[in-house]
Design a protein that fits this description.
Layout lengths: L19 E4 L6 H7 L8 E5 L23 E3 L2 H14 L3 E5 L6 H14 L6 E5 L14 H9 L5 E7 L7 H5 L3 E4 L5 H11 L3 H5 L5 E6 L5 E5 L6 H12 L1
Parallel strand pairs: 1-6, 1-7, 2-4, 2-5, 3-4, 5-6
Antiparallel strand pairs: 7-8, 8-9
Helix pairs in contact: 3-4
Length: 248
Amino acid sequence: MQQGRAMAINKDNSLKALHCCYTAGTGGGKSVAVQYAGTVPANPCLAIFDPYGDYEFHRGDPKNRGFAGKKVHHFETRVKFANQFAKAWRSGLPFRIAYMPKEPTRKEMLWFCELMWRACDGNRRLDMVIEELARWTDSNAKETGRLGECLTGGRKFGLVVHTVFQRSTEVSKTILSQSPFKIIGVQESRSDAERMGKECDLTLADIKSLEPLTYFKATGGLGNVEKLDLRHIFDKSRAKTAKNTKTA
């Protein structure tokens, strides 16, 4: 990342839009989907706005598994996060790094987005995750500022935005319209289920059929939806079966 650079570089209009949003009610497995739905590379350049430490890593603790079992380095101040992110990005190597401000606000989220926008480079892929998005966006307005720009313009600069929220009715329509990939888990209200069903050509009955850690995965384009089951992630016997099936 160049010192003082104000915006993304190396525009490449051939790059595909890969932005993804993840929605599920409490216990539905939103963060699990971010890690295991196949929407983030196995060895990513990954930055996370993680205000509540959903991706903290404590060895041996199944509730703090980092990101897909890999350690995520968390920083609480802008200076420390920006310095470590710049160092990791310049290295050219994969990394997992998170900004966890002590007092999370929309302003802090937009600062995070500003840094991602300044860093992104059409010659490289950069994945960014924003947790608890509904807290930082207005459902009644078009998303503006750097988050909106990352969503509408980031594609051509190699930026992939992953947004995570419980209720789709609480987020800006920009989030859904600019995210061709959508991961839909258990919904807590009829209004949320109906909104996501309309977005992905699913019926209310389809969405009601979901259980925790099961999802519909929309992959862009009307009707391009598949089922996704991640219950094996926390079930050793199911994990073994899934692994054997994959390698057979």
